[in-house]
Amino acid sequence: MKFTSYSLILSFFVALSGCATIVGESTQTLPIMSSPDGASIVITDEKGAEIFKGTTPTTVTLEKSDGSYWGGKSFNLVLSKDGYDTVEIPVKTSANGWYIGGNILFGGLIGWFIVDPLNGNMYTLSAKEINTTLSKSASANATKFNENISIVMLDEVPEELRSKLVKVSK
């Protein structure tokens, strides 16, 4: 009977010893905006699984942990719109202040190495919101004569492609 009482008390303190577990949440809401509005957005996770598809502006709720020990998630957001360059934005998780500071004051080693790493509440996403401006693509400003020839201003040609330009007349 005495052993059971001690086990119950110990379990209670272990459950309360992770500060990020007590204060944090397992998900985080991420507002996503673009200029111009109406960009397609696809979000994939660290395994390449598509977890969201929609258009801007929107708000998504993302899991911060994959449920494994030290299992912080990461995401790749791809925004695209006809006539604009596609933008890829990585979003990663990192330890939040409650995990770092709170366990110094309250949780100790049990919070740092057992409780918080197991539940994912210790993480925060690297972006609080996404607000990006899409650039007009060079091909959107091009005059097309056929599918193989386009006329663009030289300053609209990406730097890495300029060495491949071929002069066609004097």
Brief descriptors of the model:
single chain, 170 residues, alpha+beta, Immunoglobulin-like, 3-stranded mixed β-sheet, 3 helices, 32% strand, elongated
DSSP helix fraction? 25-40%
Find the CATH topology of one domain: Immunoglobulin-like
The CATH architecture of one domain would be Sandwich
- Strand order of the main beta sheet, please? 3-2-5-6-7
Summed up, what is this model?
The protein is 25% helix and 32% strand. It has 170 residues and is α+β, with helices and mostly antiparallel strands.
Can you tell me about this structure?
The termini are far apart. The longest helix has 23 residues. The chain has a domain of 110 residues: Immunoglobulin-like. About 5% of the residues have low confidence. 25% of the residues lie in helices and 32% in strands. The chain has 170 residues and is an alpha+beta fold. The radius of gyration is 25 Å and the shape is elongated. It has three helices and ten strands. A hairpin with a 5-residue loop joins strand 9 and strand 10. A five-stranded antiparallel sheet has the order 3-2-5-6-7. A three-stranded mixed sheet has the order 4-1-8, with no helix packed on it. A two-stranded antiparallel sheet has the order 9-10.
